[in-house]
Amino acid sequence: MQCMKEIRWVGSAYEDLVAFPDEPRRDAGFQLSLVQAGLEPDAWKSFDAIGAGAREIRIRDMVNARRGRI
Fold first, then answer.
1. How many domains does the chain have?
2. What is the pTM of this model?
3. 8 touches 50 (CB < 8 A)
């Protein structure tokens, strides 16, 4: 069994995620589980300003684009 990578929440990141509407929050959770398993999320871009290997996950709902950085 593969060991899942740890998520380290910074600042208000977790509270921001919890505030998402239901469907985008579930999608974000699924995308984070992919990253934890060592896989790539569906929609992302590199975010080198944070550090090497950092990524911005893009979550879309019907109204807004939402982003989380990992």
1. 1
2. 0.76
3. no
Whole domain around residue 33: which residue ranges?
A: 1-69
Q: What is the pLDDT of residues 8-65, one digit of tens each?
A: 888 998 999 999 989 999 999 999 999 899 899 998 988 888 888 788 888 877 666 5
What SS3 string covers the chain?
Answer: CCCCCCCCCCCCHHHHHHCCCHHHHHHHHHHHHHHHCCCCCCCEEECCCCCCCCEEEEEECCCCEEEEEC
CA distance 48 to 50: 5
